[in-house]
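Lecture 7 notes: from sequence to structure.
We start with the chain below.
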Amino acid sequence: MSYVPLEDCLDKAKGSVYKLTLMVAKRAQQLAEGAQSLIEDEKEDKPIKMALKEISQGYIQAK
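Predicted structure tokens for the same chain:
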């Protein structure tokens, strides 16, 4: 299991912890409902961790 640095995610959320929380929650819900992951995911990763990985790798940006 890999570690996702929150500093990388905060950069993508324009430095706002509030925006990051909303982004992760929305994307994790989409993934839990069956949306296709944008990254190569590991089977044991939960939707929240996959959402954090997608955000940290730049696949999802704050509006």
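Points to note: Helices lie at 6-12, 17-32, 47-56. Residues 17-32 form the longest helix (16 residues).
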